[in-house]
UniProtKB/TrEMBL annotation:
Pfam families, sorted: Ammonium_transp (PF00909)
Source organism of this protein record: Acidiferrobacter thiooxydans
Topology of this chain in the membrane: Multi-pass membrane protein
Keywords: Ammonia transport, Membrane, Transmembrane, Transmembrane helix, Transport
Domain of life: Bacteria
Protein name according to UniProt: Ammonium transporter
Length: 446
């Protein structure tokens, strides 16, 4: 049976938004699932991949039952929306809306259900990125509880404050697609959680070689191309800025990867595949808050900076004694927190007001276009620093409180005996039918 579409629905915009959401989802499942499964040592492959898979499912259920409205629903406070289910109202509400509509922006050309799904995949990948700091020792039961609580207490506040009509967005802080809401938040919370949970076993910290570099690269490739939906979907229309955001994303990522590789080759005498992956991720993260706000030259500058600053953070600052006390398994602090903060500040410098304009008018769209310091407005840099400061403070405090409460009921860290074994102890499963580190081997009489 053919059902006519409402007059406000644009089939192209709706198709693109659903496609963008789906490829962002693919960044998590299977992208980060197999990247995590491949980049850790063999005995942690299943546990690491399962942490990502579990988070994807748990976030979706919490998202439709209460967290979407806390992030994008009617205002409860300037930090938060009213909690409540969205699952029954997506059809009743029909056309999706965003808070910017109050300033004269045209309504969205796709249904509410599309908006809910699109924003879900962003929320899900935030928890999965955070997990990268905790691989190789967090109690899975504690992770099961942590995911929905962190989403509710921490993520929703950042999302509403910047994107849902809250105080940071109203103030003028720019975050095109999640440099602050997603990456800075995940990096800071992951580092905080890693400090509280404690390090991996010393033998794992000293030797944590990937069980499959090729699997890691497959996950990295899905992550890179999936970012086209990550940044290309955030104009909310299949328009020229979506195309510019996608091109900028790939330019910055390629430049960052090459810059990181040059630094590895210069200082360590060998180009590293895993180093290139870190450079790729840093470039993707750094361009995220700026993707639709900067021109091509801005993307190149961001790529160069993303290949240098996070490299220095990981390979110089990260090796200092005070940083080594915190066991951030995959260096999420460097590739996400540092890169996200860097991208946010560079947005304040490089945002080109000509990138976004009213449809057909040639005039900048107020509340949507931003003018960076390079184009005459230093105040945008100040606003970016205010936004970063709030996100950092909220994530540290929120994460500490959540883990303190969980630790009263569930151990945050696996026992040392289970840490020696790994996947088999945690799940009774192993990634490969091969003998190796962590496998329980039969003894005489078994």
């Amino acid at each position: 049976m053919l059902i006519p579409a409402p007059s406000w629905l644009n089939a192209g915009d709706n198709a693109w938004q659903l496609t963008a959401a789906t490829i962002v989802g693919l960044q998590s499942v299977p992208g980060l699932v197999i990247l995590y499964g491949g980049i850790v040592k063999k005995k942690w492959a299943v546990n690491s991949a399962f942490m990502a898979l579990y988070a994807f499912a748990a976030v979706l259920v919490a998202w439709v039952l209460w967290a979407y409205n806390m992030s994008f629903g009617p205002e409860l406070t300037t930090f938060l929306g009213h909690p409540g289910p969205i699952i029954s109202s997506v059809l009743e509400e029909g056309r999706a809306t965003i808070p910017a509509a109050a300033s004269g922006m045209p309504g969205l050309a796709f249904p509410m259900a599309t908006m809910v799904f699109f924003q879900f995949v962003f929320a899900a990948i935030t928890l999965i990125i955070l997990a990268g700091s905790l691989l190789g020792r967090m109690n899975f039961r504690a992770w099961m509880v942590f995911v929905p609580i962190w989403l509710t207490v921490v993520y929703t506040v950042g999302a509403f404050s910047l994107w849902g009509g809250g105080w940071l967005g109203s103030l003028g802080v720019a975050d095109f697609s999640g440099g602050y809401v997603i990456h800075l938040a995940a990096g800071v919370s992951g580092f905080t959680a890693a400090a509280m949970i404690g390090p991996r076993l010393q033998r794992d910290r000293e030797s944590f070689l990937p069980n499959s570099v090729l699997v890691t690269l497959a996950g990295a490739g899905i992550l890179w191309l999936g970012w086209d939906g990550f940044n290309g979907g955030d104009p909310y229309f299949a328009n020229a800025d979506a195309a510019a955001a996608i091109l900028n994303t790939n330019i910055a990522t390629a430049v960052a990867l090459l810059t990181w590789t040059i630094f590895d080759t210069t200082f360590f005498k060998k180009p590293s595949v895993l180093g290139a992956v870190n450079g790729m991720i840093s470039g993707l993260v750094a361009i995220t808050p700026a993707a639709g706000y900067v021109n091509g030259w801005g993307a190149i500058i961001i790529g160069v900076c993303a290949g240098i600053i996070p490299w220095l953070s990981m390979n110089w600052l990260g090796k200092k004694a005070f940083m080594r006390k915190v066991d951030d398994t995959l260096g999420v602090f460097h590739t996400h927190a540092v890169a996200g903060l860097l991208g946010g500040i560079l947005t304040g410098i490089l945002a080109d007001p000509r990138m976004l304009e009213w449809v057909g008018t040639g005039k900048a769209a107020p509340g949507v276009s931003y003018t960076g310091w390079a184009y005459g407005d230093f105040h945008q840099v100040v606003l970016q620093l205010i936004g970063a400061g709030f996100i950092i403070a909220w994530n540290v405090v929120g994460t500490v409180i959540i883990l303190k409460v969980i630790s009263l009921f569930i151990p945050l860290r696996m026992s040392d005996e289970d840490l020696l074994i790994g996947d088999d102890a945690a799940h009774g499963e192993e990634a490969y039918a091969l003998q190796g580190d962590g496998e329980r081997r039969p003894v005489l009489g078994d």
